[in-house]
Amino acid sequence: MHDEHAWHAVGDGPPLLVLHAFGTDGHVAHHAFEPALPDGLARRRIYLDLPGCGDAQPTAEATSEAVLASVLAFADERLGAGPIDLAGHSYGGYLAAAIARRHPERIGALLLVCPGVRIRPADRDVPHDGLPTPPEAQRLLDGLHGRHEAYLTALRDHGYRLADEDGEGARPFGGPTTILAGRRDGIAGYADQFRALARYRDATYAAVAGAGHWLPFEQPAAFRALVGDWARRALQSVAGTGR
After folding, report:
1. Domain containing 24: what range?
2. Helices marked H in the chain
């Protein structure tokens, strides 16, 4: 059955909303992020299916603006008025960065994994020695169901770019932020992510050797260490603010 919003949650505590890569779903994000989160993390991790993926219906318009509006509506309806922590992989990172840029008061801490920065492929600065999709990630991709292919094609071909993706005029996001890139990511690259550091006042950046666009599966030990550091900083920030 397809719902306007579809998700699954793990754990208890303040919300951590996780946004998946383009054309995948919340279960793929679960397999990527969940093993890297610290044991006993006091967060309710919400793995949302983006529109047209998994069990979520497409938006009326096939644009990233409409997708972003759907994510924000879900947060309003299901996660309450307080700040949430936000994580995203690839296209999910592109959307997460937009939320932090447009609505910084709604985000406590931000984790961007191989995020899209310049969403149109022709605009991206990517290495020429990108790694192929690793077997574990490929198995997850092969098992995907429920994708609305015509919608996703229209979104990618005609409505992909957010007009403010360059962040011009936006105040830097001040919460704990970690930006992780694969040194051999032939899809999103690592150089655009480094240039985007100025948008984040409290950011760690790492380009991980031996990793491509599927960093969580290619270098799981490094990913776990870096995510663990981000989670520690996020928790310290909460303790300091009383959130």
Report:
1. 6-241
2. 26-33, 64-78, 91-102, 135-142, 149-158, 191-195, 215-218, 220-241
77 burial level (CB within 10 Å; 0-12, 13-18, 19+): exposed
Q: What is the pTM of this model?
A: 0.96
- With 0-12 / 13-18 / 19 or more C-beta atoms within 10 angstroms meaning exposed / middle / buried, residue 66 is middle
How far is the C-alpha of 67 from the C-alpha of 141, rounded, in Å? Answer: 21
204 DSSP β-pair partners: 178
Instruction: Report the number of distinct structural domains present in the chain.
Output: 1
Residue pLDDT, tens place only, 95-137: 999 999 999 999 999 999 999 999 999 999 999 999 999 999 9
Q: In this structure, is residue 164 part of a structural domain? A: yes
- CATH number of the domain bearing residue 174: 3.40.50.1820
